[in-house]
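Customer ticket, subject: "Can you confirm the structure for Por secretion system C-terminal sorting domain-containing protein?"

Message body: Hello, I'm evaluating your service for our small team and ran a test protein. I'd like someone to confirm that this is what the system normally returns, since I don't have a reference to compare against.
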Amino acid sequence: MKLKLPLMALVAAFGFATNAQVSKNENAARKWITDHSKELGIKDYHTFKLNFVKKSLAGETLRFQQMINNVPVYHSEIVVHFNQNDKLSFTSESFDAAAKNITTTPSLSTDAALTASKESLKLNVSYTVDEKELIVAEINDQTKLVYRIVTNPANGKASWEVLVDAQTGTVLSTKDVAIYHRHEKNSIEQPKKTNSIVSMAPFAFVTGTAMVYLSDPLSAAHVAYGATGYVDGNDANTTQLAAARTAVTLPEIDLTAGIYKLKSSYVQIGDFETPNKGLFTRATSDFNFTRDNDGFEAVNVFYQLDKSLRYINETLGIVCKPSLNSGVLLYDPSGLDGDDNSHYVPSTERIAFGEGCVDDAEDADVIWHEFGHGVHDWLTNGSTSPYIGEGNGDYWAQSYSRSLNQWTSSDAAYNYMFSWDGHNTCWDGRTTNYAALYPGGLVGLQGGAAHTDGQIWATVLMKIWDAIGREKTDKMFLEGLVLTNSSSNQQNSARALRQAAIDMRYSCADVRTITQKFTAAGYTMPALLVVSAPETETVTVDAEGNYILGDFTSETIVYSPNCDVPAVQSPPPGTVFRAGTYVITMTSGTASDTFTLVVEPALGLNDNARANDIVVYPNPAVNEITIKGNLDTTDSISIYNMLGQKVIEKAIDSKEQKVDVSKLQSGVYTINFNNSKFSYKFVKN
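Agent reply: Thanks for trying us out. I re-ran your input and got the following:
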């Protein structure tokens, strides 16, 4: 968990701390925490700081970090989520009710703690310390003040988290917190290597070209491992493996002083783990390699990671980037000292790929899986859960590879995870057609079982994917992850994902399918009776100053088991309103939801506008209108059609403002001056 928290003053009500971020929903969220303080077990010395706010397609999520005497409690938070209408719709928590009110002034200095950590690891390789913080943690049922120190060896063999008692200097625990696509134990003793520094110079982007595996060579050729020419052969190139490549365009690569480098707005190559092989720069924009050249793995990873980030941020419209490295994802295509594994390192938010057996960087499943760990980390501000983490990575990889339509549902490889890297003489790989159900099929978290249990989670998500499609399932997956915390199990996560689908106003049929798939996999889902009213509606009175309320039941979604329950509107259609703001209630059985109806005054230039000597021309308009006069340059305008739908919003930055209306349909439109509170009507031909 990233706990980048400055000290703050305390306030009275349940010791809530002052704001780290701002949200209009904070008071409502804090009220929920107060109202549920008894059942949560909140003590008067437990304080909470709003340390992360994320607004996205499903609404706004607030994360409250538990504090004791201004020190964060490790992996302890309360998550409160509001839908797009600012209605509280979901909560989750990893709150530590047992945390005691201990002294939080350390006897040990930070430097002494760093020394204790270094001595406990006995590293004989170069390394960096990428996190060091003072936290409160539960150790063997005792509340302790500890230093948490994360050390990353340059060989990439591990990411060591060491907890040091801040009063005695005793090392309390040491564990590897890197996240791998395969389970593997690590040793501390490693041969000495050197580390390279990654440059973050300003970008000057051009397009490039490359030859890559869209997924992997076996899927491209529709063959199994071991077919003629389709074996690793110690990284040897074959005619078949070369033919499995595809020519692609790289949307952005860096061009500086005539040198082309694998950097984009989203991704940048690094050389931060051994073996150190360089950055594979080119004199041309064409990164064309065969697999026997290490440059192939470098560009293959670059293409896949860049593609995944563009898909999330640009296609799906969900902001998701690393919080470190200026929001650019750093990767090393040849890391982990050459081991047959790959990992995401939360403390640095970097990804590295091993080279044992089949190079991991040649299999898109491995690349997208490790990237999935990063997505989980970034969307939750570091509150990743081991109960769903491996399944998340497998789902994200399978969602992409299946979208390529290289296998049919009758093929065994249709469900393969790591089709080239695994399911061969190297290792068995995994599947998204796992037969075990939740919770009876769980085997636990130890000894690699998290990877095994993750197949239950990935399998049910892919069944939903097959039923409602990639984009809907991907959006539900990403938006649902935002609602989870570090202790969220598969059960709670299933509920979070379904709630995200509801808050994004998926159809009742889609949500029913989602519910059925989760239920069939063994998850217990809450009874489905939810009303989702439309968002705020803005309308205008008629020539007599009246607005006759329309029927909004068709715009209201009622989520029920059979999708056959209607909504009732109050006040009913036909009610007459004057200008003003009203609350409309949509009800179905015991469930209800409301939306705001804004009834605006009659159209036309009002007295305020005349007083300010503002004109709009030409009127009627075809391509562009000009708003000229004594305009307030701190104001903004919103243009609405006759249905009250906002079609244009624009800031006013001059006394003669031009607005492009060429894309508007013919009709009458209203210009609302948002701060000055007057309006003007024009006609678009």
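A couple of notes from the result: The longest strand covers residues 127-139. DSSP finds 13 helices and 34 strands in the chain. Feel free to reply with more questions.
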